[in-house]
Amino acid sequence: MACLERASPALKDILLKLYRAEKPMETDHHLYEFGAVEYHIQCSASDPHHIYLSISTPLLSQGTLLISHGLSHHTREMVKGVNSDVVEIVEPPKEGYQLTLRLNLHKIPSGKDSIKVITEISAIQAVILSTQLKEMLQNANSQDTFQGMYKPIKLVYHPREPFFVVRQPQKIIAVFPMRFKEKSDVIIATAFFQELMDVGSSQKWAKAPPCAWSPIPPPELRGETFEDLSTNGGFVSFGIFLFPNL
Predict the structure, then answer these.
(1) Whole-angstrom Cα distance, residue 177 to residue 64?
(2) Distance CA 64, CA 179 (A)
(3) How far apart (Å, rounded) are the C-alpha atoms in residues 83 and 128?
(4) What is the per-residue pLDDT across 190-220, written as a single tens digit (0 to 9) for each?
(5) How far is the C-alpha of 35 from the C-alpha of 174, rounded, in Å?
(6) Are 60 and 157 spatial neighbours (Cβ–Cβ below 8 Å)?
(7) Phi/psi of residue 153, each to 5°?
(8) Which pTM value belongs to this model?
(9) What's the number of CA atoms in the CB half-sphere (13 Å) around residue 184?
(10) Is 148 helix (H, G, I), strand (E, B) or coil?
(11) 67 confidence band (pLDDT: 50, 70, 90)
């Protein structure tokens, strides 16, 4: 599973070093992260006020892994909204990337605010992924049922690691099949998920989204393929109640 931190720690570190550099730096750096994500960071001493950040990421898709060279208009607008003073989308993007951004270092505020802005920029890939998911959920039909059950949407964000989303009239259920390479990881994860369920059911965490773990597929995944339901770490489910505008 991917790192739970929204911003990319490695990308954040690189951008902070470039921002804090006392002298302009020549940089042409490729950064690769989990989920087939690639960042290309470029800056030149001849243009010290700008950093060019290109991003290649497998786009969230239904059923198969989709690597596309286009982002939806809504996704691009959300990226622009990260910090419109600092972030500018370059057209067309660098070849082989879905998105290229020009970052204006001169407009990044000084002090602690600079860390906040760079952290927001380092979370661009999370913005892309979450916006795609929201678009899919908005287009999903909660009345689409199979044998009396709401049909799950199979989403792929990384090869061989699909997850499922079930949109019901009042809530969304996200189900993650858990797979581990090492037997020791299975033991640790099983204990962790069981503990997470116990903690989640306590009164202290009554307002948190409900979490469930099961060694067998939950009823919501009835009818899915054997390949998708073959795991050694069981299934983790989260229930999220919908707001009226989703």
Answers:
(1) 16
(2) 18
(3) 15
(4) 999 888 888 877 888 777 788 889 999 998 8
(5) 19
(6) yes
(7) -100, 120
(8) 0.72
(9) 0
(10) coil
(11) very low
